[in-house]
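Hey team,

Sharing the PEP-utilizing protein mobile subunit run so nobody has to redo it. Sequence (613 residues) first:
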Amino acid sequence: MSEPIKGFPLPSSLKVVPGTEAAQAAFPYYTQFQPGDDERFWFYNSMHFPEPMHHFDMITAEAAYVALGAFNTRVHVLPTAKGIDHRIINGRVYIGGVAVTDSDEIQERVGEFQQRAFYYYEHWEELYDAWKVKMKALIADAQALPTPSLPKYEPLETTHTGKGVAANHALLDIYQKQIEGYHRMWHHHFEFLLLGYGAYMTFFDFCKKAFPEISDQAISRMVAGMEAEIFRPDEEVKRLARRAVELGVDAHFTDGMSIEQVLADLDKVGNAGKEWLGELETSRNPWFNVSSGDGFYHYHRSWNDDLSLPFAALPGYIDKIKAGTNIERPTGQLIEEREQLVADYRELLDTDEDRATYDQLIGLAHRVFPYVEGHKFYCEHWYTNLFFNKIREFGALLRDNGFWAKEEDVFHLTQYELESAIVDLMLSWGIGSPPRGPDHWPAIVAQRKAAIAEWGKHGTPPALGQVPDAIDDPAIVMLWGITRESLDAWLSVDEDAPSNELKGFAACQGVVEGPARVVRSVEEISRLKQGDILVCQVTNPTWAPIFQKIVAAVSDIGGSMSHMAIVAREYGLPAVVGTGSATQRIKDGQRIRVDGGRGIVTILEDEPVLEDA
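Structure output:
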């Protein structure tokens, strides 16, 4: 008789951290675990939400899942996968897919999908060009929204022109337009994304059937060598490094520099310094509108708001340029390898029909796949960063009216609570009596601030609920790396003696040994030194400038098509993703070996060798 399958904790067994009950209860009712959730499978979305969530920041999950669900379920009508449910406990976001299992419904959805998705595939380039126009217009609309303010008295023009609307109404109008624009952005985001994955997944499934021995990595290398806007910010940092050398101002850029001092000095050193500062402005608009995170937290500021990440990369790039080292992404080599792989596998096919299908599928994947990374620049980064900065304007206005002490405190309110605080101020201004907010919000803000800090001290299970017999949602497999095999590995981590080996997805080939640098948040990136192996929960394309320092990368979460896997391949950086527990099992400074071709990480030394000392 076989052993019973060891399971994950049930959602109902998770307890709210003592003392944070009120902060937990403040999240919207529809995000709380409820009866019946124990019957389902959930996993912690540490890829997008690796840190406890502030109350306002939960809009980044809500708006995303509203739009993803609509496009999966109602717009493109994916045959076997609907939307994604989300829940939050102790600041941690858990998600669960909604599968279509009824064969008649699947058949009906196949017919709908073919009419809808195939139209997009046939008209991809023109629709994508129109998409960029839409996104840039949406960004322009958000930028054009005025800063909220309240005058002592209405300007005379209000009465003399018969405008008939007072200034306090503008607060509601601006705020609701911000929220509507953010939701609209996520609809644009998912207009193409799942179809981009779908094209690749169809090719992936064909290859797995046609070539049973083929590795996931070999298939993913057939779509490497892409041009996408999300790589452009790093290209701009390299360009600025080159210009610094050409203009003879490179000596100003050193490790640990004061950015303000460097900018002030360059302004004084003559034409060369001023010319470099002009080049910086050219790069900043729009390419520095990327956040240091992945676009889901208000405090992951953009490069434009905080220049430290791009400036930290300049000394390394300058040294390499002066030494004559190539700092370009190996795009040409990747394309050459890709074309060779495509040709080699094509020769193994037996029939003209299979070869025609293969040509069609790889051709479509090459056309659509750059969008899978390219959209991030416009959506998660440029727009989201702008959105959070516009919300900060309300934070400042309410701070100035005594609602709280700091502009950033606004992010401790849910989006609905913030609207109520705005209405409170509108009432107060109109009535001429003090607002209620200054008595109401400071204690709540302090309580939630404490809850965020407390939640950050506690771990959370990687998954909850019933272990499914199979994972059928291709996005969950490709993006998050959640498979039946990876779940079994997560469940067996604590069994028997601890092993010195971790297994994950082979993201990019190469075998490298070096000291592990465990980075748990964006703020810790500065700890990376030349020759380190980055160990993190997840990374994103805007960390690319620091890839020059590291020799390999390892992540807890992610599949063969996760952003980290894609970026690692594009930079030729050996990487293993989706290990489940690398940040827990590997100590900072330990010497490890990364085998990116086999998806194995080996801990070579038991004790950490801390190099910060």
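Residues 167-210 form the longest helix (44 residues).

Ping me if you want the raw files.
A.
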